[in-house]
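Notebook, student rotation project (T.W.).
Task set for the rotation: take a protein with a known small-molecule partner, predict the structure of the complex, and write up what can be learned from the model alone. Partner molecule chosen: zinc ion. Sequence and SMILES entered below by T.W., checked by me.
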Amino acid sequence: MTTTVIGESFRPGELEVRSDGTGNLLGSKCRSCGAHFFPIRQACAGCLGQDLETVKFSTEGTLYTYTIVRQSTPAFEVPYALGYVDFPEGVRIMGQIVGVEFDEIAIGMPMTLVLEPFGKDEDGNALTGYRFRPAEADND
Ligand SMILES: [Zn+2]
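Predicted structure of the complex:
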C-alpha cells in the first residue's frame, strides 16, 4: 500500500493520476488525420473530423521556450518559471517549471512531467496538478 495521497486532476479530464503518484497528461488523437491535441477536444482542429480518441501523452518532452513570471495573481507566488514543452506526439503544453535554478533553464533541455498537489476542490477533496522539471541527465 502506498501512503501517497493524490487526488483527481485539478481540471477534469486533463490528467490521469495513478495511485502511486505517477500519471500522464490526457489529450485527443484524431483517427482521421492523426493530429494530437491537448487538452481533450470534441473535433479535430486540423481536418474538422469528429472521430477522436483519448490518448495518454509521453511524460518526457523538450523545452520549447520559457519565461520567468514576476507578477501574477495573488494565488501564485512569484517569481516562477513558466514554459512550453514539446511532446513527441506533436503537442506543446504550457506549465510551471520546477526543480531548477532560473539561470540553469535552457531552451531545448529535456523535461519530464511531475504531478503535485494542487489544493482542494470545494468539497475538500485533494486535487492534483502538473508541472515540468528537467529530466535526469542521460547520454543521448
Ligand atoms: Zn484530424
